[in-house]
């Protein structure tokens, strides 16, 4: 009984201690480390931030799959004699009270309107049995403030499967956008970022496509972007010094970009060779912006800054030995003639022979035992130093001295090896010479192997140095034409999709686009920048009529290039005439 009472008292003490810890408001809780389970991490972080209402994490709604309709074909062997005329269906009975007799369709789910508009986080998972496999996150229609963005930042940074973030109309501002941009490099598998419907007055959109950002597909539709934001995005796409090498698609439809913004984006496309799809639909772009875009797509003259950078690139590519050490100059003591190739090679041979001699003496010392010839090694070292001084004074005599010293060194090494083998073999066996010869052969082979390994490690003079990442091709190093005192280089032919519909382009701007399309079609793609050129372009609903001759020519050129275009099948009459 006494033990039971003690246990109950201990349990009451523990419970009281726990309750005191929970009730203590001054105690700072330990920092929470996210586990990768988005639902658990998000809920716990919201609770720690003392949020009154925590948005639930739910699966994204999908249309229910319908079962395949049963075949209405009659079975074989049945109703063979009956006609194939279907029987008339009975008319549906009309409910006198006006209620529907049939059940509602199953293609949607009816919810209460207040429940439908409540804030929530929709997710897509790779495996619904594993909550840590969230791949897509959708937040729509409720404001994300600084606290919520920091909460999401902590959760996103540890999600390994996350590749899509869609925040539609969530009231982002400059600060929350900067917080989000700072966490993008930590989301290693992020590829798609959609921020449609967020009007940010600071327009710091360029922070989303920095060098560290992994975003490949960026959508900023209906964000109220002006020429200010377009300029920053154009600079982030590419300048003379740096270019973006990750962004593949950019959607800026439904903004307030005018001619100046289009010019800034076109300037970014001068050096960018990664972006493949650009949408500028439903903006305020006129003829000036269209002319600049057409110039970038065909060919353009280099500015002074670009010419200077081109010369730097060409010089670094044309002289790979620039960073190597200069060749040895003439020796100061040789007044008659400079150092010849023969003398330097013989001097190298003498050095190699000295290295071989040192290797032999070390091995003999290991195998010969205690009686190693120390006096001969000192004599060889002093002799090698004298030979080096003589070679430095007189270049013509260095070859002979190196040859004689190498011969003497080999003879002395043979003697020392023979003595070492004799001192080891006290029984008077005749195996001393054979073992000495084998040691000489082994040391020679080892020296040859070392020299071969060194030669393999050294880069040959004929091979050029690595110039960096070969996947990115600098357009400044492409072939240029000198026209009217300016250098003209081929334009951007990596961009394959351009949408300029619903703008204010007239005949002049459309003519520039037609000229660019004709240039891309007729130009031989033999330059380094390569590319197929535009494959799709949308120019409808501009100031120029769709029935205009220029628009028809553009459509005739681009229609066969469209990958989704299917030519109409030929009729038998057309085939016979052809």
Automatic annotation (TrEMBL):
Species this protein is from: Crassostrea virginica
UniProt region (Disordered), positions on chain: 1-37, 54-106, 304-474
Composition bias type Acidic residues, residue spans: 88-100
One Pfam family it belongs to: LRR_6
SMART domains, per the entry: LRR_RI
Protein name as annotated: Leucine-rich repeat-containing protein 71-like isoform X21
Gene name tied to this protein: LOC111112588
Top-rank lineage group of the source organism: Eukaryota
Compositionally biased tracts (Basic and acidic residues): 1-13, 72-82, 330-354, 361-400
Spans through the membrane: none
InterPro entries for this protein: Leu-rich_rpt, LRR-containing_protein_71, LRR_dom_sf
């Amino acid at each position: 009984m006494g033990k039971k009472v003690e246990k109950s008292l201990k349990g009451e003490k523990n419970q009281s201690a726990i309750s005191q810890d929970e009730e203590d408001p001054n105690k700072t809780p330990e920092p929470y480390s996210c586990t990768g389970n988005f639902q658990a991490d998000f809920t716990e972080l919201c609770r720690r931030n003392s949020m009154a209402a925590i948005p639930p994490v739910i699966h994204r709604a999908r249309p229910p799959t319908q079962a395949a309709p049963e075949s209405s074909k009659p079975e074989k062997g049945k109703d063979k004699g009956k006609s194939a005329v279907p029987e008339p269906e009975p008319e549906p009975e009309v409910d006198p009270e006006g209620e529907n007799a049939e059940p509602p369709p199953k293609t949607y789910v009816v919810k209460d309107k207040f429940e439908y508009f409540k804030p929530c986080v929709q997710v897509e998972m790779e495996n619904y049995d594993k909550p840590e496999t969230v791949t897509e996150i959708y937040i729509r229609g409720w404001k994300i403030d600084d606290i919520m963005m920091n909460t999401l930042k902590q959760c996103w940074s540890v999600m390994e499967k996350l590749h899509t973030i869609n925040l539609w109309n969530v009231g982002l501002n400059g600060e929350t956008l900067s917080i989000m941009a700072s966490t993008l490099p930590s989301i290693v598998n992020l590829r798609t970022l959609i921020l449609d419907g967020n009007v940010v007055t600071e327009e710091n959109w360029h922070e989303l496509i920095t060098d560290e950002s992994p975003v490949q597909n960026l959508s900023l539709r209906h964000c109220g972007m002006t020429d200010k934001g377009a300029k920053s995005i154009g600079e982030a796409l590419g300048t003379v010094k740096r270019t973006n090498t990750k962004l593949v698609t950019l959607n800026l439809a439904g903004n307030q970009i005018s001619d100046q913004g289009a010019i800034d984006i076109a300037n970014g496309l001068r050096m960018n060779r990664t972006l493949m799809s650009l949408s500028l639909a439903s903006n305020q772009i006129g003829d000036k912006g269209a002319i600049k875009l057409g110039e970038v797509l065909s060919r353009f003259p280099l500015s002074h800054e670009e010419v200077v950078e081109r010369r730097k690139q060409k010089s670094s590519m044309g002289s790979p030995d620039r960073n190597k050490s200069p060749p040895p100059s003439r020796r100061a003591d040789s007044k008659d003639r400079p150092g010849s190739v023969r003398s330097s090679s013989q001097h190298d041979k003498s050095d190699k022979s000295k290295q071989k001699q040192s290797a032999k003496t070390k091995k003999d010392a290991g195998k010969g035992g205690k009686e190693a010839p120390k006096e001969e090694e000192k004599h060889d070292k002093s002799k090698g130093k004298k030979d080096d001084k003589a070679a430095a004074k007189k270049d013509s005599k260095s070859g002979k001295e190196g040859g004689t010293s190498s011969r003497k060194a080999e003879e002395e090494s043979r003697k020392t090896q023979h003595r070492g083998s004799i001192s080891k073999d006290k029984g008077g066996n005749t195996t001393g010479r054979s073992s000495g010869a084998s040691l000489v052969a082994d040391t020679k082979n080892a020296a040859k192997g070392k020299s071969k390994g060194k030669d393999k490690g050294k880069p040959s003079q004929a091979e050029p140095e690595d110039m960096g990442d070969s996947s990115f091709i600098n357009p400044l190093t492409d072939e240029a034409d000198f026209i009217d005192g300016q250098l003209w280089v081929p334009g951007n032919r990596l961009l394959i999709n351009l949408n300029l519909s619903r703008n204010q382009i007239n005949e002049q701007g459309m003519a520039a686009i037609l000229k660019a399309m004709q240039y891309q079609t007729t130009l031989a793609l033999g330059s380094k920048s390569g590319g197929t050129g535009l494959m799709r372009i949308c120019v409808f609903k501009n100031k120029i009529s769709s029935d205009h001759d220029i628009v028809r020519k553009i459509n005739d050129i681009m229609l066969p290039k469209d990958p989704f275009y299917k030519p109409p099948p030929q009729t038998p009459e057309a085939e016979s005439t052809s």
